[in-house]
Amino acid sequence: MPPSPASSTSTGSASARRPCCRKGRPSVSASEENDHHAVRRLAAADAAAYRALMLDAYATHPSAFTTTVEERSGLPLRWWEERLGSDASGASVVYGAFDEVGVLVGAAGLSFEARQRARHKATLFGMAVAASARRAGFGRRLVLAVLAHARSIERLRLVQLTVTEGNSTAQALYERCGFQVFGVEPLAIAVDGALLAKVHMWCDLRASPA
Known about the structure:
The chain is an alpha+beta fold.
């Protein structure tokens, strides 16, 4: 996130909300299911478009990301290709949202834990939707696609993410998709001299509906 890029957001109460789950999880509308051009997993061939989308997001919404545009802009295209070339047993996967003419307008990634005792967890990262495509449902489609991918991996039990405190739009999107707040990290990132908090959220992939 946009929903502003996904690593941004708002403070949230720790009040219980319904977690996402295998049964009763947020559904995708018929129009979303029929639009097979809307969301798909990105591959190395998408690297240039993905790079452009993310660099724009880093520059436009610096408080939404821990990563800076300066850190990423100097990386070669090969780095972006390798990020998109990972498979489900690798470090991460990335999904992209495309408009009606096939232009990449959004992305969200899922990274996996390699450590034995944390392999049941994954992290949603790098959520961004281009300004021209906001309020069109792309953010929700991306989050649901990432969660569907997570559910397809048997070892995974939960997905976590962080949102910069204050980004209520992004936090509300995640809550609609089944995430709930479990804590707030103070002074998490430094942006233009300001220290901002991060809201931590999680989605239990196996929980029953509340």
